[in-house]
Request: fold
Amino acid sequence: MRARLSDWLDERTGYREVLAEWRRPVAGGASFAHTLGFLFGFLLVIEALSGALLALYYAPSTSAAWASVAYIEDQVPLGAVVRGVHRWGMSAVVIVAGLHLVVTALRGGYRRPREVQWWIGLGLIGVITLYSVTGFVLRWDQYGYWATKVELAYVNDAPGPGRQLVQAVQGGNEFGNLTLTRFYALHAVVLPVVTLLLAWAFRAQTRRHGVQPTHGPARPAWPYQSLRNWVVAALALIALVAWSHHAGGAGLDGPADPTAAYDARPQWYFRPLFALVNTFGSLRTFIALGLPLVVFGVLAAVPLFDGRPGRVTRHYAVLAVLFVGLLAAIGVSMQSYAKDDDDQELQRRSRRFAREATLARKLAKANGVPAPGGLAVYTTPRFYVARKLWASECASCHEGDDRKAPVLGPGLASRAHIRSLLVDASAPEHYGLVEKIVDDENAMPKTEATGADLDALVELIYAETGADDVDAAKVEQGKPLFDDGPCADCHNRTGTDASTGPNLAGYGSRRFYEAVLRDSGSPHLFGKLDDMPAYEDDLEPNQLRAMADYLVWLRKATPADLEALKHP
Amino acid sequence: MSANDAGGDPPPPASDATRRRFLQVATCAVGGGVGAALLVPVARLVGHTVGTVVVSAPTDPIDAIAADQVGAQPVRVPLVAARVQDAYASTANVVLGAAWLRRGKDGQIAALSSVCPHKGCAIGFAEGAQRFECPCHSATFDLDGNRLSGPAERGLDPLPVIIERGRVKVTWVRYQNGGADRKPA
Reply:
């Protein structure tokens, strides 16, 4: 039955012939030196697999890209591991490809009849470096945004159709939604197809020409070479996961901020270019675009220069150029890394950006990212609008030792605060620093009320805040004390009638704060005693409301609550 | 594989057979181990969304319409959530679905989900026939949402209603499609 089934299948597919390929003895035998090709393919499969998993979550739009990547990194189980493997896996692919190139050069494996295979291999290396150019921008974080911005700027400066090329690739005149869809299409569809075609062509060449012979007896690939291949693949996978863990995964900066002075740096395999561009400033466009072409041109010319075996001098010349080039690249890269490490300002900036990234990701996890996109995540903390206004408009006068006006902090319009105002409104934490008030004949005198009377007055004013724990009996007690006592000489406590001191109706409520913010110099508020700017024309209704809500919140807030607000 | 090298070597001696077998098993073990390791992230990332509330649905009553605007004729009112958390995005003013509101003979306002209990299409109201009709598979329901004809296995799903300060507030609930019993989705 099984035999008949396999006959049926073989007649239609010819699969036995394919399997027999693996059992045919291979010249040179099995060797760990022959595992690089398999490893290259294996790593590409890892890239494709991890890429497909990331694509389950990733959204290529300026509003969603950073948010979706942060979601993968911080909320999807194993998401950070998959991202790390995907990022560093491509570095591993570059290393394996480079190693393969060096090993091939050492053996003179580019010589006749393998010239075309050498060129296909060079093409593969060129294509795989493009994954980093197209991949990092997809994160839409500071790192990817700025690195890609700079890379495209060099292409833009290229003679001829540079500008048109950039606008085609980035999808228009600026970085935007189409940049992400185009780079995503390149990264996840176009480049993989090209890579697959080149890898297939490379493999076909290997079948035609055989692997580079070594000195072992001929053996079939299965299982001798296969075991070595899979052992190396398993070790590579373990090393990749370990390295990614050590390097902190793929990493994710804060959302792309077009105003940030971010230190853009390329991937490590472009570091030599970066170093040279910065050393020879006047030649930067030529170096950035021309040097890669020169390098690939020289490598492509190698089989033409040293095409036949036996010409040892030429082989040595090739190796000398290759190794000098490689050492120079390593040297300038290390120098460039060391320069960054020694740059204290740069280190300080990068620590700041790291703190920003931590904050942004924490907020994204806790609050989600609002519709406008990544940067809007910073607006999600509680009282964000109010705190921002506070910092720009209020803090200079109402906070700290250099202030000029009453402290507006935790406990504002609480019972304790009102009591303290009644006891001494000219204390420095109240109106003591406002010369216009303390120097005026109408400055508020200290209350003479004490004990239960003071309690009742406090409760009466406290009730105006709209608090839910008001003692109604005390309020009733307070009314005659207020109306018939010295308070009423300067203050109303109902309606909107003008008086010398502020009308206390709704004191400490949102409506009251909004009125003060609009124009604290209104006749029913501070009138001619006023010394604060009017914000009526400067603040939008939602800003006024946000600020008033925040001031109301302060009533019940403790200093610890305020600290928690400042550091979400 | 190379044509000029392959033929010359003698076939492996018989004593090699055991070793060969061992290497084959070892290769399958290593390869299988790698494959199994790769299945773990695949299962986790694919399966993360199974049984996870990715899109949050507010459970509070949603302000729909002024109570005096609801009469004996059903009115369709969209239910808009102030904020919905959808995976990574937090979005304001999201339309969750619609409710058909109608004042019954007893004067009480009742709400029916516009989601057809059959396959989830949006129910419409046929004024001439005075009944609810599903555009997809022709299920029909009377004014109170009771099933009249068609493939639906139950009547339209009622939604909780409260009246506050003259406003109708409806709680959005999505039920599973199909079945005679209502199960929250």
